[in-house]
Amino acid sequence: MSGLLPTSTDASSEQKGELRTLWLDSDHAGELLSSLSSETARAVLTTLHDRPATASEVADRVDTSLQNARHHLTNLQDAGLVRVADIRYSQKGREMNVYAPTEEPLVVFVGREERKTSFLDSLRSLVAAVGLLGIVSLFVQWLLTPETMATAADSLPRMADGLGNGGAAASLSAPPGVLFFAGGLLVLALLVAWRRWHRVNYPTV
Question: Which of 100, 116, 168, 170 is paired with 80 by a 20 to 30 Å CA distance?
């Protein structure tokens, strides 16, 4: 009979929900910070972000007792950081909860309301920019197929003498979509750094 019960899970650690914000002086923030006050609790939450797991698997990963793992999982669940994502069964047919992070990422905010709004707007803009960059990078990767790249490489002037043997070939070895995405991330990082520098040195009145 136990062979008919699911012993694996399709649960995911991916967080697809809306971004949540929490004020540091709120009652819920106190519960959340209390649930993370232990190093073991933080290790439990971290390992669930890597991969969902049962209580016994969590205990093995963070090198603690099963009782202690269950204690921290309960606290994290009460604080809204962990959820029961699935149920699976042991080889003996025993029911086990599969734990995963909550679907909504969380930001604990310290500051004034207007700074919170500005921060969230900036964060959303950055996430949107990275998402758009990823889509464009996929298009670049699709556009520059291996056949197209081979034709372009044949048409480029020989640069091996100046770069050393194999230098030009090595520069073309990385997928074009990856190169485009990496370059875009660099530009975004420079823009964020410049905006932060400008805000510090030329604050608005």
Answer: 116
